[in-house]
Specification:
By secondary structure, the chain is mostly beta strands. It contains 1 helix and 6 strands, in the order E-E-E-E-E-E-H. It has one domain. The chain has one helix at about 70-75, and strands at about 10-15, 25-30, 35-40, 45-50, 55, 60-65. A hairpin with a 3-residue loop joins strand 3 (about 35-40) and strand 4.
Amino acid sequence: MRKLPLIEVGFQVFVRDGGEEVGAVREVAPGGRPELLINVENAGDFVVSLEAVKAVHNEKVVLDVGKLSPALKHAIGHAHDREEVGK
């Protein structure tokens, strides 16, 4: 497994650099497993394998969409549905 930079609770989660934030890291390696627990806005918590992490920098975690579950992809696609237009 490749070595990733340190990921900490509270880091923001993105699906592309320069894109909109879709959630935040809630746990790192829960139970010693190679995964993250992330909270996706408007959808709740999801487990993400560290293999799906494309990059980590500036307190941001960028995920590889191709390695995410269909349920997580759907949640990310609707992360900003409740935001008011113009705000």
